[in-house]
Backbone:
């Protein structure tokens, strides 16, 4: 019987991002409050004779089928476990690429969670602890361990020091991606130019959480449309908070009630990718099983 194993990979939202001092290895120390959205990619695996990769091509966002973090996660898992299983891989990609929403890291994290579940189901294998996939995830990227946990978190250090937090619920989030892919590396390179500028702006609070992004100025210098988006968000009636997530270019707004969500398509002339919904905390046992794919590939 053919069985597909499915897992959700939720988008990560940086409510704030404070860039601190640069360490001797060239990396910056960071502090960030993050949550995860109901905006998700879906990943399906099926045991197979060979690795094959498929995507839902009806979606706007497609990743490199030969070089991506899903394949890297599978190969790194094999390296650590000597588990030589092969898979048919199906990806339903909904998170914009290069948007600051951590889609690649989320995909890698979800793949590791799914592989651990399948590995532990095999009676011949020793049970793998969560700490092991957190270790593997950290080898793939600094955001991957937090995406494995996929709950309200406070990050520090290089992003790998993780502390469980609880942020306000029952709010509605909307994101606007102005169709501009930004390289995190490029934004950090520009950060050195702007880090000493005295940039004064009105303090924005989401209850007791400061909404701030140290990378806003360098990201805006590379993608001026970000500033245009934020100006529009600022003028929305009843908006609680707004800002830019990650290294950009996606911006977000928060409102208390769903009726406070404006006609975003009209505001942005239907030019940008727009999503609205709520945040959620995701469980490590979110793997499900199906005899058929939910979407046509």
Residues:
């Amino acid at each position: 019987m053919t069985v597909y194993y499915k897992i959700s990979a939720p988008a990560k939202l940086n409510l704030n991002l404070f860039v601190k001092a640069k360490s001797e290895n060239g990396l910056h120390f960071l502090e960030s409050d993050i949550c995860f959205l109901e905006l998700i990619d879906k990943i399906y695996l099926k045991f197979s004779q060979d690795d094959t990769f498929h995507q839902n091509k009806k979606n706007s966002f497609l990743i490199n089928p030969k070089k991506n973090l899903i394949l890297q996660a599978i190969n790194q898992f094999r390296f650590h476990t000597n588990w030589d299983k092969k898979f048919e891989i199906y990806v339903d990609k909904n998170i914009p690429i290069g948007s600051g929403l951590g889609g690649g890291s989320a995909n890698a994290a979800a793949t590791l969670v799914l592989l651990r579940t399948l590995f532990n189901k095999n009676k011949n294998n020793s049970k793998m602890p969560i700490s092991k996939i957190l270790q593997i995830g950290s080898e793939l990227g600094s955001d991957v361990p937090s995406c494995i946990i996929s709950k309200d978190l406070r990050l520090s250090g290089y992003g790998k020091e993780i502390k469980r937090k609880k942020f306000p619920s029952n709010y509605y989030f909307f994101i606007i991606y102005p169709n501009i892919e930004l390289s995190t590396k490029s934004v950090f390179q520009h950060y050195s130019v702007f880090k000493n500028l005295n940039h004064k702006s009105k303090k924005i609070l989401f209850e007791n959480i400061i909404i701030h992004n140290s990378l806003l100025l360098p990201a805006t210098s590379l993608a001026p449309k970000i500033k245009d988006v934020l100006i529009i968000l600022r003028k929305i009636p009843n908006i609680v908070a707004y800002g830019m997530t990650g290294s950009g270019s996606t911006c977000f707004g928060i409102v208390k009630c769903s009726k406070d969500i404006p006609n975003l398509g009209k505001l942005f002339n239907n030019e940008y990718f727009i999503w609205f919904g709520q945040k959620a905390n995701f469980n490590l046992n979110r793997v499900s099983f199906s005899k058929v794919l939910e979407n046509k590939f």
The chain has eight helices and 15 strands.
